[in-house]
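#struct-help
A.M.: can someone run this one for me? Single chain, 302 residues.
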Amino acid sequence: MLIGLQKQWQILRTAAEKDKLPHAFLFSGPDKVGKKTLALNLVKFIFCQGEKEMEGFSCGKCRACIDVGKKAHPDLALIEPKDGSIKISQIRDLEWKLSLKPYSAKMKAGIIDDAHLMLPDAQNSLLKTLEEPRGKALLILISSDPQRLLKTVFSRVRTMKFFLAPDAEIKEKLASFESDFEKIEKITNLSLGRPGQAMEFLNDHEKFSAREKKLEEIEKIMKAKIPEKFKYAKEIADSPEIIEETLALWERRIREELILCKESSSCLVRPLRELEEALRLVKTTNASPKLILENLMLNFNI
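D.P.: on it. Structure tokens below:
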């Protein structure tokens, strides 16, 4: 079950069946919404040697499907960051693998996870493959921050956008593994529309507890005085991931208040807009995260 990705899957499956897939894709969207899962499902579908399911997925049982699931198929090359970046040597190795004749599948496939972490020389090296692909191969770049890709790379791939999943679909998925409705509700709220995050919380109690503590921390800061808010801003300012997670949780919390307190909701509209603007600035500009947070703390009152 692909949570919130039915439209994307339908487009990809139809193109694959008609043998009209472009040679290079960019799967762009938030972390943990299923971009890599869908990329691997597409490769399985193309490589599958068994009878495909009625829903249009691969059989999941043949040798090819099993090997892709283990990321060990000889015709699949998966590139992931090492020490926080993707280096030119990794891209050259990928290019070499894609240039070889398929071993058992009808084509080669390459996936670059967190493609925005490619160093500039690695991206420039990839350009040749994007401009003049050798042999029959499919390349999928996956990124939650596509603005960091070179324009020359971005312009040579077909972009497919991914979005946060509806809560109802996440709850339905969790309910197939967990019977505690209260826990399902908590996990859904804390996952912020990210199915992959929801499954991590379900399977890793420590991560789930840590996110619950983060929410408690946010609840406390929402009611704190300015000096405490400034201290908190300083503590998290050096970590972009923590800032985005904190602001997203904060935004979710305010939206919940809006739903629950309709009669007094007008007082929450401005704080929500302040949070949305701060999150936008953190994600799309080079402005100082500390200054963004301090400005938010000054104007944020509920």
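A.M.: thanks! The mean pLDDT is 90.
D.P.: also worth noting: Residues 204-299 form one domain.
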